[in-house]
Structure formats: structure tokens, C-alpha cells
Write a structure and sequence with these properties.
- Chain A: Belongs to the STXBP/unc-18/SEC1 family.
- Chain A: This is Vacuolar protein sorting-associated protein 33A.
- Chain A: It is a peripheral membrane protein.
- Chain A: InterPro entries: Sec-1-like_dom1, Sec-1-like_dom3a, Sec1-like, Sec1-like_dom2, Sec1-like_sf, VPS33_dom3b.
- Chain A: Pfam families: Sec1.
- The complex is a heterodimer of chains A (about 600) and B (about 850).
- With about 600 residues, chain A is of the alpha/beta class.
- Chain A contains 23 helices and 15 strands.
- In chain A, strands 6-7-15-14-9-8-13 form a seven-stranded mixed β-sheet, sandwiched between helices. In chain A, strands 2-1-3-4-5 form a five-stranded parallel β-sheet, sandwiched between helices.
- In chain A, a hairpin with a 2-residue loop joins β10 and β11.
- The longest helix of chain A has about 35 residues.
- A five-stranded antiparallel β-sheet of chain B has the order 1-2-29-28-27, with no helix packed on it. A four-stranded antiparallel β-sheet of chain B has the order 3-4-5-6, with no helix packed on it. Chain B has a four-stranded antiparallel β-sheet with strand order 7-8-9-10, with no helix packed on it.
- In chain B, β3 and β4 form a beta hairpin.
- Classes of the chains: A alpha/beta (about 600), B alpha+beta (about 850).
């Protein structure tokens, strides 16, 4: 069920197990039958830790979504609220509790499970509403880092970037630090910490502090990670804006992957059975889980989309050849062997069918003229062409009222690739956007400016070309089929963040001091002392393990690039990736938009 | 050593008892013990004496004196007794002294005579007074049982969770029982009492008469009873000098003895050891001590002095004015080794080792004898075990030496038991020292556990010894040293004669960063003692902000709490303090405080955004943050339900944006106000919704509805760029299907967007006919695409050939179908070939 988590260099099943244990312990505290009332946002992440079956084993009989009003009827002994510590949610819970029928018997016991942390503020709030006493157990469930795959952890904290960079609310960084402490408790103290950016600095400080808070708990686990690299998203604002060109990246760009699941238009997945041709097409979207448990997906997810087709057709040949085998099976033994392999083969065949369909869906889009034009402009910007003047394509797109987020992505990309736009150019774009999409977006534009995604070039100096050249962010001779550099994930652009990780491993950041100074925030190195018994004596040829933590989000293309580095034969470093949230340009910009709905006149 | 067994007294065939001195008492008592109320705590605990208690009537001026001594007779503390008449003293399991007054009030003191608290045994007791009282220990804790003047029993099984129980009445009871005891059977506490020749059992609800099995009818009236340490055994002494010994369930008799002493004994207690089959009681009269068990003989000792018996888990302690002795049954291992002419392996091993020391060859003979029987491991174990039972370090050592010697001749003898015994004995010898005065036996020590022993040392404020023991036993710091240091520090903060600085410094010096130390707990204690400044100083050493902050808030040091909360990075903690401050301070001071703490300020802003939008405005105002103020007004304008309100709020935003020198935002907002006003007119004029559309959509809707003039007017007024206006207009016209107007528009002047958009939009609206009109006007570079869009492959081919552009040719070719476009394909192929030739 969770085999994919143990496939990587670091066995993340242990983390998932720790999470499950904690959950079970809590559920068992509330003896008797239970109903869970869910903060809806939590259901997705929870699904990665425990399925319904686990809850059911612990007498969870009903599940509801948290909403105001009276709680649904359910003949259970316990009502447990699973919520994030947010005041808005506390108001809803208060409403639920106050409307509970006091006369009903037997009475139901209330409990709250705060995820990921119990909050004094919320409890104070509940106290003021006079309902705090109604809760028998008020506990926390430290679900900070959720294992998504064998090398991938995410906090799934949707608004982390916005909170950190727009609102100076560093709550998510505190959770990140806590999550890292949990990780260290399970996988040993990480001896080296590197970081770049204000948030990275803050997280590292908190980690050191937290370690001091528990001086006695000397960790006696042999360290699994050699290095932790903390990276602020605002050190590299560029990468998420560009369209990802890996298979997984494109699925996310086009359909959006939520907690490893994707919903796809059903037409292409219609069952192709004879005699049923006349039946209706399915109308429910097709829901698929995407992770490395699926052999084929693990192979193609990180490839450039242009290299996926050939793999799929090769696979198709192998599988049909395998099915052909049955004609050659003569003896009973051979038939038996064939039959024993059948389930695996059938799984492979259905996996292939699914991905062929997905690839077709994506191909329809990537071959469209508009996709091509958009990509061309992106690539021009990234390679430094005409970034300083108003771009025709963007203007045309606005004039034709293309989706606003697409426009914002492009304008921000241009701004970032030019270290800010000339005031005149910036104002022109802003005016165009406000006139076309409406005045209410003035606040969104302001947010983008605050986050540094849009800015006017005040100092007059454009650092981007220097950064691009020093870090070799643009590679003209990209090889999409058999890549030799991370730039394949964006067909030419090498993600800055991943380049920083790569250069840290070899030859070290000292070689790029100048560029690091141009990027925002401090860069630093910390060492955590290990007892002599735990110091690693590295075997010759043994790879180092680095945990790269993206504070503010990471894209699938960046993950692909890091995986590519892990697999490089002479790389010497394997990467595990952690982040506050898995993002793409669209979801990222969306999180920064101000939602203003006019009151009806 | 030769006379080692000199003080062994046989009882029956198998058992030996010995009595030896633990301490010569240091207390130099003037009074006789019989004149004092005495209470000695089990497990070698302290001794409480209330002097002069009996002489109250004779000299009312002489107050009784309450004194507490260690088991070796060192005075721990004393106070003059000023409260009411005391009936009984007893010790709790945690070594607190219970002083039971005649009126049923129970006062609790610690072993330094410091008053802790009191409780009452209830009204009934108050009215009828306490006749007798007993303190007892069960699995529920320490209990108190009272016999009142009305000859009724009241009891509680746990003084820390006081639940008073009044036992049922004994029918026809006119005088106090001659003796009684508290029994604990199957978790039920019951009272057994004797009146004359009758025994009564009181449980929660009923009173029943019981008869011990095998009790001789001629035994006579009961005078004394004794319950064993573990509540399993009961002994009854009658006025014929007969002693019945049996199970306390009264279901079985174990043995009996006839002492032929008819005077009532002063005390009778059991003397047993766990896991031994021997049962015996010790009975004390004024000058005589008797050990009686399963034998017709008994052991008798003469008592030179008035003595007091303290039953223990594995024996009896005997207190007198000058000495403190221990009487116990010799354990089997010791018997085996030391019994005269014993050939047990342990005895031989001890002998072998002695010979070895004398460098005698006999050592080898003895060893051989043990080894031949393959009993060497047993011999070693026996010596180790026996060492534990010895009080004299010399004897312990010789036994351990023998064990160590024997070990050498065994392959892989596991060393743990030996090492542990050495360690345990060192600890025991250390605490048995008369200055410490805790005469624990090995058996008691194992039952008590090291943790409880450490607690007891802490209670006696023997911190250094406790720490030495922890270090010596290598207990984990959290379990051992830290706990003790924390206790020490909590004691230290109560020393009022030292300054805050001194105390804080002294505590930090000692405690440093010892793991498991909670400075906040110590600080809380200091605060409880009224030493707030000291508490704050101590909190400085606390690394966990989660612990610091609540206490600082409690001590009303909110600002300090705020900076600590911020340091921690825990935003929830910051919020907690901020909201606390909000309630505590007036608004102005509150804002000023936040001003100096940007982290707290931004968090409070977040809070206001969701909970108190009005306050948000005040915050921005105070900061002169005009940009955010402008945004605030824009935000609130959208919740205005009337257009005037909306415009008003936006006007505020304009002002704020100007102040923020954000000209763009100010202008854009002014434009929006203008647009809103215009839209209202449009809405009125055309009776269609226009409000809240973007400028683009407004113009587009106007064109869709054919109001070209009004559209034109907006285009000019808002300076819509030509390019965008052209795009907008042709899309709208195409949507409307107004191809005539579109053509007219295309000819109105030269298109700033070229003519390809005309083609594209017409095609998009499935009007190829119109599209074709514009294809020729498209610039040469885009013409091929235009012709392909309108489906004119032939012309597309011509255009491509004209450009001599191979890519374009290929593109056209890719659109051709072999069957229908033969001529075009041929033409293109020819041109391509020609191109390649060059």
C-alpha cells in the first residue's frame, strides 16, 4: 500500500508509520464509536497517511464535512473535529456545538484534533465563546511533513508563500522547523545545514533553538541525511512562472495534481469493450493516483514530454509481445508460468493504456499554436531577448482576453527576467490588465509587487543576464531525449533553484559568491555537532544524501531536475525533496490573487 | 568470624533468629519512651516523639514538644505542640507525619516539622472524640482509622483523596474493644475487633461474629492482635497467655503457642520475611521480649529498657532510649553458608577463599569439592545473595570476595548479579551511616525501589548524597540528577535570607543546562513564594519559550512575554500574548507596544484582517502606511451595497494613494470612479446591467448592442490603446455577426493589428466567406497562414513559392490531402526541388 515510500534512498515509510501510530493513539483515547468532522482541506493530505480502513478499525463510523449549523444525526459516542488551528474554523465548531441537542441521550462527547499544532489562540477563542469545556480531548496531530513519494515530502500548506512573503506571518515556517525536528528524530541529526534567503535563515535559527530546548534528548540515530539545504522560493521566483515541460509537470500544469491524484476528462478513458459501443460515455472525471508505485509512471514522469512518446510505444511493443507468449506456451508448466505473470502484465497494460490516453490529451494541447506561441515568448524572456519592452504577444493576449493568470505569469516572468520592468512598461501592463479584466485586480497587482514578482526597475541595473550566465540558466543545446543537464525539464532553461543545489554539491557555493549576493536574502552554513560515535565514515563511492527544502513551494519540474541529478552516475549526491506545498505557476499566482467580489447593487 | 553464629537463636528445627544493633541512639532522651507518643515510619523511616503529652494535667504550663529524629536518633526538627490534644501519631507512605487530635482533626507535617495541611475525620468524630486511632497503608495510599468515644469506627483509606466511611455498629457494645486492627482483603478495608472472648468483623455494611479455626475454647479473652506487614497473617493473644497464629482471612490456623504469661503484652508484631515459610510473632512486655512461632519452644530476650517495636517487611526494629536493634529471621542463603558444619557450596567457597588468602593448598581441595559436584555457580550466587543480608561491611566484603574468587573458575559467569550487589551494598552502607540514618535492609530496599529512596533523600534535603548515588548508579539524568537538582532549586528559592541575584546565580551555577531541568517550574515555585523578580531571573535560563511565556503573563510581565514569544518563532504563542496585551493595555499603549515588534504587528494585522477590519484601518493610519490604507479602502468599497458608498470609499482610496505617491493607483482608481458613474448612466439609458463590468467588457457590450458611438466615446475618454480597441471591436462585431460594420471598420483606417486577426476571427465564427475578403490584405509574412486558415491551399502555395520559403512550403504540403490537392502538391514539390537546386 505504501511500498513506493520505501523505494528511495531514505525509507519514508517510517515517517508515515509514525504518523499512523500517532493517529491510532489519539483515536483510541476516545473510547467507543466515533464520527469525524473534517476540515475539508485536511482530507487530501490525511489520505496519504491513513485510508478509511484504518479509521474504521478504530470505530470511526461516520465522516462529515465541517460546516455551520447543526451536526448531522449519527448514533455515535464521540464527535471528533479534525481541524487546522484557524479562528474561522473555530467559529464553525462553536456553532456546531451550541446547536447540539442537549436533550438527546446518550450525549455525544466532543473532541478536537488540531492539525498540525494545538493553538492557545484557538482555545482562548473557544473559551470566550463558552464552549471550550465541551471538549474532552483537545490534542494535536503533528502532521507537518507528509510523505508523497519515496523522495518527496510536502506540508501541503497552501498559503505558505503568501503568508511568509506578503503578510510576514511565519507560522508555516515554524511548522516547517517542527517538521524538520520530527524528521531528525526519526532519521538522525543532519550535520550540515545550508540555506539561502530570509525564511531559510529563520527556519535554521528555529531548528537550532528547538534543539537547545531539548538538550537531554541526545539523538542516537545514525544520520541518514548528510546535508539540509533550505531555499527560499523568493530566491528563485522565475522557475515556477515558466511552463513545465516534463510529463508530470505538464499534467500538473494542465489538469492540476492534488495530493498525488489527478482528475482527467473521461472521454479518452471510455472502456473499449465490444458490444457496448452504444453505451453512454462516462461523465464523471477519471481519477488516477500518480506515484512511483506505478512502474511505468516512475519511468516517464520526469522525462521531457517529447521523450515520452517513444517510451510508450516501446512499452506497447514489449507488452503485446509478452501477451503473445501465450501462443508459445505448450506445456502445462509454461502455461502455469504465463498465468502467474498475468496480473502483473494486465496491470502494466492498463497502466500503459492510461498513460497513452493522458499523453494524447497533453499532446493536443502542446501542439496547439497558442501553446507554442506562449512557450516561445517564455523562452525568449528566459534567454534574455527583448525583456525590456512591451511584448506584442502579451498585448495581443490581453486584447483577446486570454485567461488572466496566463497574462500575469507572462508579465511576472518578463519582470523577473529583467530584474524589474521600466516604470512605463510596468504601468502599461497594469493599465491594460485593469481595463480589460477589471479594476478589482489592482489589489492582486499590488500583491504581486509586494511579493517581488512584479517590480519597477529602480536601481536601473539588470542583474539577470549575469545570473543567467554564471549559473548557466539557459542552455541552447538541450537534449530532450537523453538529457545531460537539468535544463531539459524546461527545454532550455535550467531551474535556478536546482542549479544552486547542484553547485552547492560541487564545487561549493564559494565559487558563486558574487551571484549569491545578487539574489535576495542571506546565505549561510550551520553545523550541528554529532557525537563521535555517529560521525559517518563514508564508504568509497557512497553517495551523500541531501534534503532540499523549498520554503514557499516547489514545482514538479524542479523535482524532476533534482531526481535527474540524483541519478547522474558521477553525481555523488542523492536528493530528497521537502516543501511547504507542491505548486505550479497557475496555482502559485492564484494563491497570491486577492479575491474581490463586488456586493450586488 | 568464628563466633559468627553466636547471636543466632534457633526456633524449631529450621529457623534461626538474630537480633543485632543498628545504631546506638544519639538522642540522649531524658524521658522514658512509655511517657511519649511514638511513631516510627517503616522502611527505616524517621521517628516522631511527642514528649510530655501524658503530663498535661500536672503542669499545664509545660507544652508538649514534638520532635522528629532520624532512625539513628539525630534530631531533624522539633516544635512545641500548640494545637489540641493528640491521640495518635503516624507516618504516611511519603513520610509525612499525621498528628491525630482528640477532636478528629488530622494535622499533616513534613519531617522538618513544617505544617502542610489539615483535614477532619468528620462531625461524628468531633462530637464523640477520638478514643484510639491507627494509621495504615494499603494499595490506595495511607489511611486513618478512628475509634470514637461512642465505640464506633470511622475510617478513610486515602488521606489524599478523603472519603470518610463510618463502619456499622457492633450490636450491644458498651465498652471499648480490648483490641482491634485494620485489615485489607481483596482491596476491601475492614476492621477486626475483640470484645472479651468475641471477635467481630466490620465491613462496609455489616458486622459479623467470627471464630478463628482451631481456637481452643479455653483460650480466654483476647488482649492483643497483630496483622502482618502484608495483611496476610493475623495473631491473637489471649489472657491465658495463648497465642493463635493464622491467616487473616480466619480460614486457616498456622500454628499456636502457649506463652503462659498472662499479663497483657505491651506490643505484639509479626516477624517474617518475604518468601520464607517461617511465621513468628514478637511479643514485648516491660522487661521481656519473646519470639514465638511454629515450635513448642520460643526465644526469649531480656529487655533492659523500655522498648518500642516497629514492624518491617522482613523483621522487627526495636527502639529504646540507648539503642536501635533489628530482629529478623536468618535468610536461607546465610544459614547455608554460616550454619556450623555446613557443607553447602557457598560455605565451602567461603572457606576456600579464606584458605586461599592464607596461601593454603586447602583452598584447592575445597574448590575441587564444589566443582566436582558442579555446584560452583550456585556457590557464587549463594555468596552474593548472602552478602546482601549482612549489615556489617566486613562480612559483606568477605562474602563478596568469596564470590569473586569463585567466579574466576567459571566460564562466562554473567557479571551483572555480582556488580549490582556491590553497587546496592555501597548505596545501602552509605544511607545506613548514622549521619543519614536510614537502616534499610537489602530486601526493603528492593521493595522500596531506588526512585523512592532518592525521593526520601530529597525529602531529607540530602541533595548531595542523592546526586552522588545517581551518578554512581549511572541513572539517566532526567530520571536522576535533574530531578534532584530541581528539588534542590525549589527548596533554594524559599531561602528568603539570600538576595534574588545570589539565589538565581547559585541555581544556575548548579543546574546549568542539565537535561530535564525545568527552570520554569522552579520559577513558578519562586513566584508562589512571592519572589517575582527571582522568578523572572530564573525564567531567563529557561530555553523553552512555551514554558516561559504563560508564567510571564501570569506575573504580568506581558512585554517581556511578547519578546520571548517572538524569539521562539511560535506564532501561536505570539498571538496569545498579543491578545492578552490587547485586553490588558489601553489602545494607544497597545499600538505603541506593537510598533516596536514588527513580527507581532504583522500577526495582529492578520488577526484584524479576519476578525476586526476596522482596527486594521487604525493600524495603517498610525503607521502612515498610505498604500495599505488605499488598499483597505478599495477592499471595503467592494462590500458597499450602494454606488455612492462605493464611490466614496474609492475616493478615500484615491486620496490615500496620492499620499503614498502611487500615482498609477490613484489614476486607475479615479478612472474606476469615472467608469462606475458612466456605467450607471449606461445602465439607466439602456436598462441593461453595466455596473462592475471591466472597461473592456463595457465597450464590448456597447458594440454588441450596436451603440457604436458610446463605445467610441469610451475608447477616447479612457485612452484605450488602438491595438486593443481594434481587437476588441472586431471580436465584438464578429460575435454580433455584423460583418458589414466590420468591413467598414477595416477600411476606416490602416489596421494597427494587421489583417490576420480579421481572418482569424471570421474563421472562428465560421464565416470563411468574410475571412477570404481579408486574406489578401494580410502582410506577406503572414499571408500563407491566412490562406491556409481560409482553406485556399492554392493561394497559400503561391504565397509560399513567392517567398521561396521552404518551411512555409512544407507547412502547406502538410495541410494537403493527396487525393484532392494533386495540382497544389505538384506545384509545391516542383518549387521545392527548384529551391534545393540552387
Amino acid at each position: 500500500m505504501a511500498a513506493h515510500l520505501s523505494s528511495g534512498r531514505v525509507n519514508l515509510t517510517a515517517l508515515r508509520e509514525a504518523g499512523r501510530r500517532e493517529l491510532r493513539e489519539f483515536l483510541d483515547k476516545c473510547a467507543g464509536s466515533k464520527a469525524i468532522v473534517w476540515d475539508e482541506y485536511l482530507t487530501g493530505p490525511f489520505g496519504l497517511i491513513a485510508q478509511y480502513s484504518l479509521l474504521k478499525e478504530h470505530e470511526v463510523e461516520k465522516m462529515f464535512t465541517l460546516k455551520p449549523g447543526r451536526l448531522p444525526q449519527a448514533d455515535v459516542k464521540n464527535i471528533i473535529f479534525f481541524v487546522r488551528p484557524k479562528l474561522e474554523l473555530m467559529d464553525i465548531i462553536t456553532d456546531n456545538v451550541l446547536r447540539e441537542d442537549r436533550g438527546r441521550s446518550p450525549q455525544r462527547d466532543f473532541h478536537i484534533l488540531f492539525v498540525p499544532r494545538r493553538s492557545l489562540l484557538c482555545e482562548q477563542w473557544l473559551k470566550e465563546q463558552g464552549v471550550l469545556g465541551s471538549f474532552i480531548h483537545r490534542e494535536q496531530y503533528s502532521l507537518d511533513l507528509i510523505p508523497f513519494d519515496g523522495d518527496l515530502l510536502s506540508m501541503e500548506s497552501e498559503s505558505a508563500f503568501k503568508e511568509c512573503y506578503l503578510e510576514s506571518d511565519q507560522t508555516s515556517l515554524y511548522h516547517a522547523a517542527k517538521g524538520l525536528m520530527t524528521l531528525q528524530a526519526l532519521y538522525g541529526t543532519i550535520p550540515q545545514i545550508f540555506g539561502k534567503g530570509e525564511c531559510a535563515r529563520h527556519v535554521a535559527n528555529m531548528m537550532i533553538r528547538m534543539k537547545r530546548e531539548f538538550p537531554g534528548s541526545q539523538n542516537s540515530i545514525f544520520p541518514v541525511f548528510d546535508t539540509l539545504l533550505l531555499l527560499d522560493r523568493n530566491v528563485d521566483l522565475l522557475t515556477p512562472l515558466a511552463t513545465q515541460l516534463t510529463y508530470e509537470g505538464l499534467i500538473d500544469e494542465i489538469y492540476g495534481i492534488q495530493n498525488t491524484y489527478v482528475k482527467l476528462p473521461p472521454e479518452k478513458f471510455a472502456p473499449k469493450k465490444q458490444g457496448e459501443g452504444g453505451k453512454d460515455l462516462p461523465t464523471e472525471p477519471k481519477k488516477l493516483q500518480l506515484n512511483s508505485a506505478e512502474e511505468l509512471y516512475a519511468e516517464i514522469r520526469d522525462k521531457n514530454f517529447n521523450a515520452v512518446g517513444s517510451v510508450l510505444s516501446k512499452k506497447a511493443k514489449i507488452i503485446s509481445a509478452a501477451f503473445e507468449e501465450r501462443h508459445h506456451a505448450k506445456t502445462v508448466g509454461e502455461i502455469k508460468q504465463f498465468v502467474s505473470q498475468l496480473p502483473h502484465m494486465q496491470a502494466a497494460r492498463s497502466s500503459l493504456a492510461n498513460h497513452t490516453s493522458i499523453a494524447e490529451l497533453i499532446k493536443d494541447i502542446t501542439t496547439s499554436e497558442d501553446f507554442f506561441d506562449n512557450l516561445t515568448v517564455e523562452q525568449e524572456f528566459m534567454s534574455g531577448i527583448d525583456t525590456d519592452k512591451v511584448n506584442n504577444y502579451i498585448e495581443d493576449c490581453i486584447a483577446q482576453k486570454h485567461p488572466l493568470i496566463k497574462i500575469l505569469r507572462l508579465v511576472c516572468l518578463q519582470s523577473v527576467c529583467n530584474s524589474g520592468l521600466k516604470q512605463k512598461v510596468l504601468d502599461h501592463y497594469k493599465k491594460e490588465i485593469i481595463q480589460t479584466y477589471g479594476y478589482e485586480h489592482i489589489l492582486t497587482l499590488n500583491n504581486l509587487e509586494k511579493a517581488g514578482l512584479l517590480k519597477s526597475q529602480t536601481s536601473g541595473r539588470n542583474n539577470y543576464p549575469t545570473i543567467r550566465k554564471t549559473l548557466r540558466l539557459w542552455m541552447d543545446d538541450v537534449n530532450e531525449q537523453n538529457p545531460n543537464d537539468i535544463s531539459y525539464v524546461y527545454s532550455g532553461y535550467a531551474p535556478l533553484s536546482v542549479r544552486l543545489a547542484q553547485l552547492l554539491a560541487r564545487p561549493g557555493w564559494r565559487s558563486i559568491e558574487e551571484v549569491l549576493k545578487m539574489l535576495p536574502g542571506p546565505h549561510f552554513e550551520e553545523r550541528q555537532q554529532l557525537p563521535t560515535g555517529l560521525q559517518k565514515k563514508r564508504q568509497h563511492g557512497e553517495n551523500r544524501v541531501t534534503l532540499v527544502f523549498f520554503l514557499g513551494g516547489v514545482t514538479y519540474a524542479e523535482i524532476a531536475a533534482l531526481r535527474f541529478l540524483s541519478q547522474m552516475e558521477d553525481g555523488g549526491t542523492e536528493y530528497v525533496i521537502a516543501t511547504t506545498k507542491l505548486i505550479n505557476g497557475t496555482s502559485w499566482i492564484k494563491s497570491l490573487m486577492e479575491k474581490l467580489e463586488p456586493a450586488p447593487f | 568470624m568464628d563466633c559468627y553464629t553466636a547471636n543466632w537463636n534457633p526456633l524449631g528445627e529450621e529457623a534461626f533468629y538474630r537480633k543485632f544493633e543498628l545504631y546506638a541512639m544519639e538522642w540522649s532522651l531524658k524521658e522514658d519512651l512509655r511517657d511519649c507518643l511514638v511513631a516510627a515510619a517503616p522502611y527505616g523511616g524517621p521517628i516522631a516523639l511527642l514528649k510530655n503529652s501524658g503530663r498535661k494535667e500536672k503542669s499545664p504550663s509545660a507544652r508538649p514538644l514534638l520532635e522528629i529524629y532520624s532512625a539513628s536518633g539525630l534530631l531533624l526538627a522539633s516544635i512545641p505542640w500548640k494545637s489540641g490534644q493528640l491521640v495518635h501519631l503516624g507516618w504516611t507512605a511519603s513520610e509525612d507525619l499525621l498528628c491525630i487530635q482528640e477532636d478528629g482533626t488530622v494535622l499533616i507535617y513534613n519531617l522538618f516539622c513544617e505544617f502542610k495541611r489539615h483535614f477532619s475525620m468528620g462531625n461524628e468524630v468531633l462530637q464523640n472524640h477520638v478514643l484510639e486511632a491507627k494509621v495504615f497503608h494499603t494499595e490506595y495510599g495511607t489511611g486513618v482509622a478512628i475509634l470514637t468515644g461512642a465505640h464506633r469506627f470511622s475510617l478513610t483509606t486515602n488521606i489524599d483523596d478523603l472519603k470518610l466511611r463510618r463502619m456499622p455498629e457492633v450490636p450491644g457494645l458498651q465498652k471499648p474493644p480490648s483490641c482491634w486492627a485494620v485489615l485489607s482483603q481483596d482491596r476491601v478495608t475492614i476492621v477486626l475487633l475483640a470484645v472479651g472472648q468475641d471477635l467481630y468483623l466490620l465491613d462496609n455494611t455489616s458486622c459479623s461474629v467470627v471464630t478463628p479455626p482451631g481456637m481452643s475454647p479455653a483460650a480466654g479473652a483476647y488482649l492483643r492482635m497483630a496483622v502482618s506487614f502484608n495483611y496476610r497473617c493475623l495473631a491473637l493473644f489471649t489472657d491465658t497467655g495463648y497465642i493463635w497464629m493464622g491467616l487473616s482471612t480466619l480460614k486457616e490456623k498456622l500454628c499456636e503457642f502457649n506463652s503462659s504469661i498472662r499479663s497483657p503484652p505491651k506490643q505484639m508484631v509479626w516477624c517474617m520475611r518475604p518468601r520464607s515459610r517461617q511465621r513468628a510473632v514478637v511479643v514485648a512486655w516491660d522487661h521481656q521480649l519473646m519470639v514465638a512461632g511454629n515450635s513448642t519452644e520460643c526465644i526469649q530476650f531480656v529487655l533492659d529498657e523500655d522498648s518500642y517495636l516497629v514492624p518491617e517487611l522482613d523483621g522487627v526494629r526495636i527502639l529504646s532510649r540507648t539503642s536501635h536493634e533489628f530482629l529478623h529471621e536468618i535468610p536461607e542463603a546465610s544459614q547455608e553458608i554460616f550454619k556450623i558444619a555446613s557443607m553447602a557450596p557457598g560455605a565451602l567457597l567461603l572457606e576456600a577463599q579464606k584458605e586461599y588468602e592464607k596461601e593454603s593448598q586447602k583452598a584447592d581441595e575445597y574448590l575441587r569439592e564444589i566443582k566436582d559436584q558442579k555446584l560452583l555457580p550456585e556457590a557464587v550466587s549463594q555468596c552474593i545473595e548472602a552478602a546482601g543480608y549482612e549489615h556489617e561491611p566486613e562480612t559483606q566484603k568477605s562474602l563478596l570476595r568469596a564470590a569473586s574468587f569463585g567466579k574466576c573458575f567459571i566460564d562466562k559467569f554473567p557479571p551483572e548479579s555480582f556488580v549490582r550487589m556491590c553497587q546496592d551494598l555501597r548505596v545501602l552502607n552509605a544511607i545506613r551511616d548514622y549521619q543519614i540514618g536510614i537502616p534499610l535492609t537489602f530486601t526493603q530496599y528492593k521493595r522500596l525501589t531506588i526512585e523512592v529512596l532518592l525521593d526520601r533523600l530529597v525529602l531529607r534535603r540530602l541533595y548531595p548524597l542523592a546526586i552522588r548515588i545517581c551518578e554512581y548508579l549511572r541513572l539517566s539524568e532526567i530520571q536522576g540528577v535533574s530531578r534532584i537538582l530541581a528539588h534542590w532549586a525549589c527548596y533554594k528559592v524559599q531561602q528568603k535570607d539570600k538576595s534574588d541575584e545570589e539565589v538565581a546565580h547559585a541555581i544556575n551555577q548548579k543546574l546549568g543546562d542539565t537535561p530535564g531541568i525545568s527552570y520554569s517550574e522552579i520559577a513558578a515555585r519562586a513566584y508562589d513564594c512571592g519572589r517575582t523578580e527571582l522568578a523572572i531571573k530564573l525564567l531567563e535560563y529557561e530555553p523553552r519559550s512555551g514554558e516561559q511565556v504563560p508564567l510571564l503573563l501570569k506575573m504580568k510581565r506581558s512585554k517581556l512575554a511578547l519578546s520571548k514569544a517572538i524569539e521562539s518563532g511560535d506564532t501561536d504563542l505570539v498571538y496569545t500574548v498579543v491578545l492578552h496585551l490587547k485586553n490588558e493595555l489601553n489602545r494607544g499603549t497597545f499600538f505603541m507596544t506593537l510598533q516596536n515588534q514588527p513580527v507581532a504587528l504583522s500577526l495582529y494585522r492578520q488577526f484584524c484582517k479576519h476578525q476586526e477590519r476596522k482596527t486594521l484601518k487604525d493600524l495603517y493610519n498610525q503607521d502612515d502606511n498610505h498604500q495599505e490604507l488605499g488598499n483597505f479602502h478599495v477592499h471595503s468599497s467592494y462590500s458597499e451595497q450602494r454606488i455612492e458608498g462605493r464611490v466614496g470609499a474609492l475616493q478615500n482610496a484615491v486620496d490615500a494613494y496620492y499620499k503614498a505617491k502611487n500615482e498609477f493607483a490613484a489614476k486607475a482608481t479615479e478612472d474606476q470612479i469615472k467608469l462606475l458613474r458612466l456605467q450607471r448612466h449606461l445602465q439607466e439609458d439602456f436598462d441593461k446591467p453595466y455596473l462592475d463590468l471591466s472597461l473592456h467588457d463595457t465597450v464590448s457590450n456597447l458594440i454588441l448592442d450596436g451603440h457604436h458611438k458610446r463605445a467610441e466615446q469610451l475608447y477616447r475618454e479612457f485612452k484605450i490603446p488602438d491595438k486593443r480597441y481594434w481587437w476588441l471591436k472586431i471580436s465584438a462585431l464578429a460575435t454580433r455577426g455584423d460583418w458589414e460594420e466590420m468591413e467598414k471598420f477595416s477600411k476606416s483606417k490602416k489596421s494597427p493589428i494587421g489583417y490576420l486577426p480579421f481572418v482569424e476571427i471570421s474563421v472562428k465564427h465560421h464565416n470563411r466567406y468574410e475571412a477570404k475578403k481579408y486574406a489578401p490584405r494580410v502582410t506577406p509574412e503572414q499571408r500563407v497562414k491566412a490562406f491556409i486558415l481560409v482553406g485556399d491551399l492554392d493561394q497559400a502555395a503561391d504565397a509560399a513559392i513567392e517567398h521561396k520559403n521552404e518551411n512555409e512550403m512544407n507547412f502547406v504540403l502538410s495541410k494537403c490531402t493527396a487525393s484532392t490537392d494533386v495540382a497544389v502538391v505538384e506545384k509545391l514539390n516542383r518549387a521545392r526541388a527548384q529551391l534545393l537546386k540552387k
